[in-house]
Amino acid sequence: MASHTWKLSSDTHTCSNDKNQNCIPQSFRLTSFEETQNQSHNERVNNAQILMAGGDSEGSSRLEGNAAIVCQNVKKWYNKGKPVLSDLNMRVPCGSVYALLGSSGCGKTTLLSCILGMSRVNEGSIFVYGENARINNIGIPGRNVGFMPQQISLYPEFTIQESFNYFASLGGSTNNQCVAKSEFFTLLLKLPSLNRKISTLSGGEQRRVSFAAALINEPPLLVLDEPTVGIDPIVRQTIWRYLEDLASIKRTSVIITTHYIEEARRANVIGVMRQGKMLVELTPQQLIENSNSTSLEGAVLQLFKSGLELQDRSGDKTRQNVCNSACAGVETQESESDPPKSNLKTGVYRMAKLKRTKAEGLKQSGTRIKALTYKNFIVMIRNIFLLSFAIWIPAAEVFTVVITYDFNPTNLKVGIINQEANSSVCDSKRSIQRNCSFEYLSCQYLEFVDHDTVEFVHFELAQDAEAAVHSGWLKGYLVFPPDISQNLFDLVSSGSSVDDSVYNSSIVIGRFDETDKAISIALKVTLFKALDEFISTLLLSCDLDPRIGKSSLQYALPLYGNSYLDFRDYTCPSVALASIMTFPIIILGTRLVDERNSGMLARCFVAGAQTWEIFISYFLTEFWSLFAQGILIFMVTLVIAGIKIVGSIWLAFTLLILSGFCGSSFGILLGTVCRTKLDVAILAMSIFFPNIFLSGIIWPVEGMPEVLQSIVNILPCTLPAESMRSIVLRGFGFFHGRVWPGFAVLVFYILFYCALTVSYKKFIKRK
Ligand SMILES: Nc1ncnc2c1ncn2[C@@H]1O[C@H](COP(=O)(O)OP(=O)(O)OP(=O)(O)O)[C@@H](O)[C@H]1O
């Protein structure tokens, strides 16, 4: 099908001598100069069917033309509060510039968001080109509408050209079309070099870029929320002249809000709003004529002040004219989306429905996903500082575990109160060691204790050692009773019962500071190990079988893992999972809040992007970041920690990436639900710690109350951590009962968070 692209006609390049107006295009008569095979603006508009008898003839007043947008009895309120829009009627003729005026807070932006399908009306109907504003297949929201929000709504990390490319590709324009349009708008709006970053532009320059971005796809409908704020009067004139031409030549329908009343003189229709109601819809000339004022500003101010609907001198016919008279005639087909029987069904300008096959729809989604992913990449790469943190911090956290959990505790000071022999006696009796001597057993035993772990400090009295424990200097103390060696010998050799006094005098009493369990366990293990070795050695030196002294419970080689005190193997896999899950929560959550609060997200939705497309684009971008994080984590685990991955490294890696995606989808949910970045950070942190504590990373799940155990098992980190340990340390495959549940939990949470986000957007936010 043939279509047109547009350029400035030759006179537009004429430069005036006036310095201020230098090179400002004198006229922007749009001239069709090239035919392409792609469907473009004109074709999209011409495809519309005028359903009114006789159509909208060139000569007839555009005020009375067929409506592009019709609002009838619209009521809208937020959170069951006072109505922001109440019984509002509006009719935007096709191919006209419609200026929406009203005091601050009267509901202009709310009305625009309802027209664009971003907000739901509570009562009444809004029809855009004869279709339901929220559900239609005419590409609105989509490529058939250009939207400029009140905020700048551009990515500060982008250059001007990249911003144009982004919006052009969201709307499905080709690169060549975008380049031509970029050059055109640079000239028209006196934009700086296209390579300049948005963050380096002045406020006015940013607004002009934002304006151009809304027009880059030549949409038949333009919704511009205060586009001329902060723009100098000359460029403002240019903008208005361009909009006039778009409306008259290309039949673009333009809705523009502004607080500069005089500039609205150039509009075809002015709608004046007050406290959520449409007071009048008239041409500028009619507005003046119907007031006691000679200027438009005076007429509008008069209206604002009176708050009354302007009475037409000819019996309210004017308003009737505006809203209804053009509607005479043709009936359209009634459909489910049609409003109740009313003039809405007639006199509307209907846009051809997009006839897309499923494949074409998917192709368009693919194009948008590509644009969104590209945008995410640029934003990510331009925030290199944050990116680098995000990439290496999970690995750094695993590294912290590796270096801190690697060593047994050393130099633990333990008091010795040896009532059998003091330290100098013990020193002098070293020769009896390993000579089958049953004298000074206390001294012999102490020699077997690992002196790297335990450092003995001798005391005369138990009270002194206890005082040292209280002061925090000692970890505990051991008391050897007098004649312990003799009593022990009697106990062992008697073969029958012995006196309590003999028994009591044959045991060593130890008391420890048990507040630090890891330390007290390490001490006890060391002291018991020394006792075991000492007894075996003593028996051997007496030509006895050393096994006599061994406990009848013996541990063979471990089935999995090793027998020494090393928490790294247990902790590393879980910490890796938890940390790779946490970062995307904060990064995506805060980025999304940023995008929403800056109006970028709204712009993106108006351009036709679907929530699921945004999800996929974030997942695609996040994948590379997670991939890099995963590689670094594995390098730390394998190379620095020397932990051997017994099972499939790919399975472990996949689990790690899934955990990152789980965090990403939760981040998207938080970004959707939270109002500020601080909310995201607080929520993410408050969830992070319970997640760590309850998932068995620090304290085993088996050590928790039974009720809690069933709850923690469905948390997003518990079963995946167990799966990771089973793959890494035990070498289990995917189908093992301790592996696949971890994958299943993560997939469940990803889908669950996505579903919650979509539901929130659909049922709560749009209300
Ligand atoms: N999400 C929201 N929740 C609650 N109230 C809202 C919300 N958005 C807007 N409002 C309220 O609705 C009213 C209309 O707001 P709106 O932004 O539509 O006004 P406006 O006419 O565009 O104002 P301005 O000219 O200052 O941009 C205001 O009182 C505003 O506080």
From TrEMBL:
Keyword vocabulary terms for this entry: ATP-binding, Membrane, Nucleotide-binding, Transmembrane, Transmembrane helix
CDD domains: ABC_DR_subfamily_A
UniProt-annotated location(s): Membrane
Major localization listed first in the record, in broad terms: membrane
Topology of the protein relative to the lipid bilayer: Multi-pass membrane protein
Signal sequence annotation: none
Positions of the ABC transporter domain: 69-300
Transmembrane segments: 384-405, 575-593, 623-643, 649-673, 680-699, 739-760
Entry annotated with the keyword Nucleotide-binding: yes
Domain ABC transmembrane type-2: 537-764
Top-level taxon: Eukaryota
The protein's name: ABC transporter G family member 23
Native species: Orchesella dallaii
Origin organism lineage: Eukaryota, Metazoa, Ecdysozoa, Arthropoda, Hexapoda
